[in-house]
Amino acid sequence: MAEFTSYEPGTPSWIDLATTDLEAAKGFYVGLFGWTAADTPSPEGIYTMFSKEGALVAAAYEMSADMIENQIPPHWATYITVANVEESLATVQANGGSIVQPVHEIPGSGRMAAVQDPAAAVFALWEPHGHIGAQRANEPGALIWNELQNYDTAAAAVFYEAVFGWSAQVSQMPAGGEYTSFMLGDRPVAGMMAIQPEWGPVPPNWSVYIGVADAQVACDYAAAHGGGVEFPPMDVTGVGSFALLRDPQGAYFYAMEPAP
Which of 134, 118, 95, 167 is nearest to 16 (CA)? Predict the structure, then answer.
């Protein structure tokens, strides 16, 4: 069991789902991960908190008409903890990023802003005040990893080093190609890999990996409950087995069965 009571600034700490059908999405993810769903009213609508054994692990909300009109697809978002959201926002802009959603306060929880990096990969800045983010992580049924996928890894490394103080550690993947681990001090906090031609027209994005006990079982569940399997479980020595899944509304995520 991996419990958290705080996150060092520069650490991915929370994920939430923007969906076109909140009720259907709740049913899908509760069935897949064994989560408990609790609805919280907000000025923007219902924000559903997902819990595992009483600990918060993720959330979901229904997309606004403006988001749908602007052709934003259903998606999982990555939140990265910062000490001061305005200061981090200024650093994002000074290094070629831009604002997607300006700073706003969530009473009793924290302050956030949604931004995009110079390649248009979107993520959120989170300044916690009451809500630290995920209270459980790095285990089945909880967030395990956040990964940036883009076309220019060298340029991205420069941007994220400036914004979060990360350093880029590049290694060779067993199947070929390079993988970048973003290090916060001596600790890996996120990853990055180049989008491959065979993936098709994938936009730069922050992807989420959610833990499962069995990656194949997760694939079978998704296929049987209106979702889909984009690629079946792939084994990586020393890391585990992971599969890219799609929920019934079209949001992509990775199911990750960690190595022992």
Answer: 134
